[in-house]
């Protein structure tokens, strides 16, 4: 049984952003959520997130998680931030895990190792990593696994600067924690209270401080846009590798972006530049063409999306295909063997089996019956300036090119609409509807106009 505190109060000025640092997204999820999920994997008795800058936004982003919030009104350093959690943890005997909201790669296994250090008798355990270039980090002095101190670079001798082991900012403490925090001083240039000072305080009270060595990549923190991109690259590489091991083919995998919420089946093929977001589900054997974006979209087994297609909130059934350059908006449902071609936009419409809309059409708020053909330039005019209206097209109908169906309107089964018509009234089953001016040919008019007769 343990408690966990995540420090997420900092502003992150080096991000150059109005968004609080811990809310910057990584693969569609706020950075701090990774720290929360790693903490929850160990089932803490209590989980507290210390907020400060942008507190309301951070609390809103974590609304779905079982966390309590403590507020740091004034950002006075990491030790001061941790002290703000005391009232929520009063009477809890420990041990305590403490991590940062800006280290999203920390694994539950590493946190478990920190806890084990305290459970085996240490008063404090801290995560350390070895960096090829430790410039800017405090160096760890130790004897065996016991930590003797943390020396900031500005105070380090050349011999200490040569050390490559640094403090990664994750800790476990025994029940002495909050008493020790009250002994931290702010005798430094920034006048702030820092967690590494607890090393000397714990040792002064005769308590052992031990180091737990972690992987350098795992302890990557985010303070700049470059570091955010670096962490996201690590997450993406692992996610791509996971799906390729599950049987997904990625052509130029380094160009493919996908989020942890996406689900892929074996024998899916993703061409270069594909972007997969949100609750996207792609079934067995599907292909997604180059530079397509799918968000909250389902492809049933055997569906196909061609290059440069954008689908958001769409559902494609087996044998359906869209693109290239198609746009499927929320509520677009393409049943079996539907073909939607280039520069066709579908919104909140169901296209039944075998419908074909080859090019340059807009189908919004429509029901299109099986086997119907939609010509080039067809528009369902669904909006009257105040409300949306539906268009119903029957089975095996033929809608001629450049026609406008002004909703609400119905076109019957096996009906024909002549090219260039503006349909404002229902068309019965099997009828031909023509709604356009009659053609007249004025002999010689063009030559007379040009003065060539």
UniProtKB/TrEMBL annotation:
Region: Linker, residue numbers: 226-246
Pfam families: Hexapep (PF00132), NTP_transf_3 (PF12804)
Keywords associated with the record: Acyltransferase, Cell shape, Cell wall biogenesis/degradation, Cytoplasm, Magnesium, Metal-binding, Multifunctional enzyme, Nucleotidyltransferase, Peptidoglycan synthesis, Repeat, Transferase
InterPro entries: Bifunctional_GlmU, GlmU-like, GlmU_C_LbH, Hexapep, Hexapep_transf_CS, MobA-like_NTP_Trfase, Nucleotide-diphossugar_trans, Trimer_LpxA-like_sf
UniProt catalytic activity: N-acetyl-alpha-D-glucosamine 1-phosphate + UTP + H(+) = UDP-N-acetyl-alpha-D-glucosamine + diphosphate; alpha-D-glucosamine 1-phosphate + acetyl-CoA = N-acetyl-alpha-D-glucosamine 1-phosphate + CoA + H(+)
Residues binding UDP-N-acetyl-alpha-D-glucosamine, per UniProt: 7-10, 21, 72, 77-78, 138, 152, 167, 223, 329, 347, 362, 373
Pathway assigned to this chain's UniProt record: Nucleotide-sugar biosynthesis; UDP-N-acetyl-alpha-D-glucosamine biosynthesis; N-acetyl-alpha-D-glucosamine 1-phosphate from alpha-D-glucosamine 6-phosphate (route II): step 2/2; Bacterial outer membrane biogenesis; LPS lipid A biosynthesis; Nucleotide-sugar biosynthesis; UDP-N-acetyl-alpha-D-glucosamine biosynthesis; UDP-N-acetyl-alpha-D-glucosamine from N-acetyl-alpha-D-glucosamine 1-phosphate: step 1/1
Active site positions, chain numbering: 359 (proton acceptor)
Cofactor binding: number and manner: Binds 1 Mg(2+) ion per subunit.
Residues reported to bind acetyl-CoA: 376, 382-383, 401, 419, 436
One Gene Ontology molecular-function label: glucosamine-1-phosphate N-acetyltransferase activity
Chain sites annotated for binding Mg(2+): 102, 223
Enzyme Commission code: 2.7.7.23, 2.3.1.157
Region of interest: N-acetyltransferase: 247-453
Region called Pyrophosphorylase, residue ranges: 1-225
Record localization: Cytoplasm
Family listed: In the N-terminal section; belongs to the N-acetylglucosamine-1-phosphate uridyltransferase family.
Oligomer and partners: Homotrimer.
NCBIfam families: glmU, PRK14358.1
Protein name: Bifunctional protein GlmU
């Amino acid at each position: 049984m343990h408690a966990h505190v995540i420090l997420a109060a900092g502003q992150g000025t080096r991000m150059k952003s109005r968004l609080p640092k811990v809310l910057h997204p990584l693969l569609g999820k706020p950075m701090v959520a990774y720290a929360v999920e790693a903490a929850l994997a160990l089932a803490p008795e209590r989980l507290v997130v210390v907020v400060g800058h942008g507190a309301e936004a951070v609390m809103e982003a974590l609304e779905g998680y079982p966390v309590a919030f403590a507020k740091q009104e004034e950002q006075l350093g990491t030790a001061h931030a941790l002290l703000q959690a005391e009232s929520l943890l009063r009477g809890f005997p420990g041990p305590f895990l403490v991590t940062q909201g800006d280290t999203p790669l920390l694994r539950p296994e590493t946190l478990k190792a920190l806890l084990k250090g305290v459970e085996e008798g240490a008063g404090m355990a801290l995560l350390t990593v070895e960096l090829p270039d430790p410039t800017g980090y405090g160096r760890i002095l130790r004897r065996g696994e016991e930590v003797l101190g943390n020396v900031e670079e500005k105070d380090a001798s050349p011999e200490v600067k040569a050390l490559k082991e640094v403090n990664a900012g994750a800790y476990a403490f025994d029940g002495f924690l909050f008493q020790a925090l009250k002994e931290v001083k702010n005798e430094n240039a920034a006048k702030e209270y820092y967690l590494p000072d607890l090393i000397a305080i714990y040792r002064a009270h005769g308590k052992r401080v031990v180091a737990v060595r972690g992987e350098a990549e795992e302890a990557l923190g985010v303070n700049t846009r470059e570091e955010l991109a670096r962490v996201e690259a690590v997450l993406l590489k692992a996610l791509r590798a996971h799906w390729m091991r599950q049987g997904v083919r990625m052509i130029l995998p380094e160009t493919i972006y996908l989020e942890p919420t996406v689900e892929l089946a074996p024998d899916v093929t993703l061409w270069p530049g594909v972007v997969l977001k949100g609750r996207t589900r792609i079934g067995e054997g599907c292909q997604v063409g180059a530079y397509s974006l799918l968000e909250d979209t389902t492809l049933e087994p055997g569906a196909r999306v061609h290059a440069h297609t954008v689908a958001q909130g769409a559902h494609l059934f087996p044998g359906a295909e869209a693109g290239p350059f198609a746009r499927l908006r929320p509520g677009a449902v393409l049943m079996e063997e539907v073909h939607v071609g280039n520069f066709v936009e579908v919104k909140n419409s169901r296209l039944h089996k075998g419908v074909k809309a080859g090019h340059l059409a807009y189908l919004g708020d429509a029901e299109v019956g099986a086997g119907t053909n939609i010509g080039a330039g067809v528009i369902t005019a669904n909006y009257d300036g105040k409300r949306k209206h539906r268009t119903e097209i029957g089975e095996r109908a033929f809608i001629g090119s450049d026609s406008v169906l002004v909703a609400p309107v119905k076109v019957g089964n096996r009906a024909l609409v002549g090219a260039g018509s503006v349909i404002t009234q229902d068309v019965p089953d099997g009828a031909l509807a023509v709604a356009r001016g009659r053609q007249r040919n004025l002999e010689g008019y063009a030559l007379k106009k040009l003065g060539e007769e």
